[in-house]
C-alpha cells in the first residue's frame, strides 16, 4: 500500500519540468539569397520585443522538449543595405498587406545542456509569412555565454514559393532572384528559473 506522501512524491516526479526563457534585446533575423547576377543579405536587427519561450519536459524519460512562444517581426524593418533591393524584398513579402513575420516555437529534439560551446540540436517551428504558415524543421546552435545569456541560433533553407510568393525580377526579367532563401535567426535569452 502506497502512503499519501508516497503518492505525492510519485506525482511530483512525474510533473512536467517547466523553464521560461525571456527574449533579450539584440536578437536578429537574416535572410540570404541570390540572383543570376549576385548574392544579397537582408537583416532585421535589434529585435527587442519582450517575449517568453516556455520550455516543457513532460516526463523525465522524454527526450523531446516542448516549446511554447513566438516572435513577431516587422517585415518593413528588413534592410538589404541597398535601397532598391530592400524595397523589392519588402514588396515581394507583401509588407503592406501582411506587416508581420511570425516564428512560433514547437519543440527541440532534446533538452540542451547549455555549456559555453555550441550544441547542435534540431527542432520544429511554424513560420507565418504573407498569410501562409509552414511547419519547418530547424537546425539550432545553442550555447550559454559568460554573462549567462543563452544564444539560440536557428538556420533553415526555404523557398519563396513555400509561402506562395514569386521571387522578384528586374529589368524585364534579365535579373532574376533565385527561389531558395537561407533564414537564420539569433535570439538572446535569459533563463527566468535562476
TrEMBL record:
Gene3D superfamilies: Lipid/polyisoprenoid-binding, YceI-like (2.40.128.110). InterPro entries: TTHA0802/YceI-like_sf. It comes from the Bacteria. This is YceI family protein. It comes from Pedobacter cryophilus. The lineage of its organism: Bacteria, Pseudomonadati, Bacteroidota, Sphingobacteriia, Sphingobacteriales.
Amino acid at each position: 500500500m502506497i502512503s499519501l506522501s508516497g503518492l505525492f512524491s510519485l506525482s511530483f516526479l512525474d510533473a512536467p519540468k517547466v523553464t521560461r526563457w525571456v527574449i533579450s534585446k539584440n536578437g536578429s533575423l537574416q535572410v540570404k539569397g541570390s540572383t543570376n547576377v549576385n548574392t544579397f543579405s537582408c537583416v532585421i536587427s535589434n529585435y527587442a520585443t519582450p517575449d517568453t519561450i516556455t520550455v516543457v519536459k513532460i516526463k523525465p524519460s522524454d527526450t523531446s522538449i516542448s516549446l511554447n512562444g513566438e516572435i513577431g517581426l516587422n517585415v518593413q524593418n528588413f534592410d538589404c543595405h541597398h535601397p532598391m533591393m530592400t524595397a523589392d524584398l519588402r514588396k515581394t513579402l507583401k509588407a503592406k498587406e501582411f506587416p508581420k513575420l511570425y516564428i512560433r516555437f514547437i519543440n527541440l529534439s532534446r533538452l540542451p545542456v547549455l555549456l559555453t560551446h555550441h550544441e547542435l540540436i534540431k527542432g520544429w517551428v511554424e513560420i507565418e509569412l504573407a498569410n501562409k504558415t509552414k511547419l519547418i524543421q530547424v537546425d539550432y546552435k545553442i550555447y550559454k555565454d559568460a554573462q549567462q545569456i543563452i544564444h539560440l541560433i536557428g538556420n533553415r533553407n526555404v523557398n519563396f514559393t513555400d509561402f506562395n510568393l514569386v521571387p522578384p525580377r528586374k529589368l524585364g526579367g534579365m535579373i532574376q532572384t533565385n527561389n531558395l532563401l537561407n533564414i537564420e535567426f539569433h535570439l538572446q535569452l535569459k533563463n527566468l528559473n535562476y
